[in-house]
């Protein structure tokens, strides 16, 4: 109503400020309701009689772990507070209530056999410095250095050039290049960078054409799919790999290069399918597109060292089984080199996605608690997984994971499901052997997590692409659903074929 009076900017501002405050108040109320619901539900589980759970031999510590696990699940699903904050709270709760360094009134006065086994506080805190965390830090440092030296722009320009100027091949180029970048850089950073390169292209395309929708959707689709190609591409991969390679668990010793060997062909096939799908649903009106990617790679000695180190790091990751150098160790090479030569400074360290790392660490801590308290074993004994059809367990876990990943963080999904499924898989190894064993089960979870991209909230790349204003939510949902179904079918087919023939 104030817009009718061109001079009343102050009044209009007050009006909008009040509206914003009302909206903010409503959001705060919603968050408080969610928080209270999560806390009350967890407290009920905490205080229920132990025999209510139907698990024989359930101890006090195990029951507390169930309550904390439920709290984590509800908080990650409802998003009452940021996901990384939930992880930190979970770690603190575990240490203060279930560890061997918990508050005295949580331990004293309870018979030892009733209390159960306490977790090691050192094991919980060690999750923040897990080798997988170091792997991610190395990946983040590589990404920061690539941006500072212009390596990302140069690589994008060089990699897109072979695809020419025909619209359909330019689309394929963005799919491939985004997919490759997301294998080594964070999906979010990759999507943000490629959308920046894409912005002038979108402006140049006809306003009534559907081609710009195809290009805008290509970025999140390929960022999510491409991340499956390497262990550092997305956190669910790393979480699955941690449990597969755990010396005290399955100890399968799956290397960086080995993961790439079977996941990259799968990624390529899914990206090609995405290409045909986008062309079919959103055909181009303009037949040619001229790309103009700004930015040049620096040529000073520090930048050259970055280029060489980047290449050596990737080479060592790919050949880790040949060299014998663990991929987590390799990840520290760029950290040391770039810090030593001054490419990375303390301000750059602040750009590392610590929220992702804390999120992953919180998931690891839940896994530690499930295992060390004996809760995971008791749950598996209570739920007769070993009597279930292996195909039901494998496919069912993938579908559950995919469904969850569309609504909550991919990392949170993997953090919740992988620890439980790892123990379940161990209990039914013989049944799963014909379908590829535990590897099929856990890698399937990683695939299912990465394919959750139906909604703008499903992943940060989806949110960034939706923010361009080029994509309607129903278009994103349609493409995301089709790609999810196709990806799951192809992924599980690949895993079962490889696993049953002894390649996993």
Query: In whole angstroms, how far apart are the ends?
Result: 66 Å
Contiguous uncertain segments of 5+ residues: 1-15
The mean pLDDT is 83
Structural class: mainly alpha
Give the helix proportion (percent range): 55-70%
Beta-strand percentage range:
under 5%
Overall number of strands: 0
Largest sheet: none
The string of secondary-structure elements, in order, is HHHHHHHHHHHHHHHHHHHHHHHHH
Characterise the protein shown here.
With 504 residues, the chain is mainly α. Among the domains are: 15-118; 131-354, no CATH class. The chain has helices spanning 9-47, 60-78, 83-97, 112-115, 121-125, 131-149, 151-160, 167-184, 187-204, 211-226, 235-245, 256-281, 301-318, 320-323, 327-330, 332-340, 346-349, 354-372, 375-382, 390-405, 410-427, 429-432, 438-450, 460-466, 473-500. Mean pLDDT is 83; it is low at 1-15.
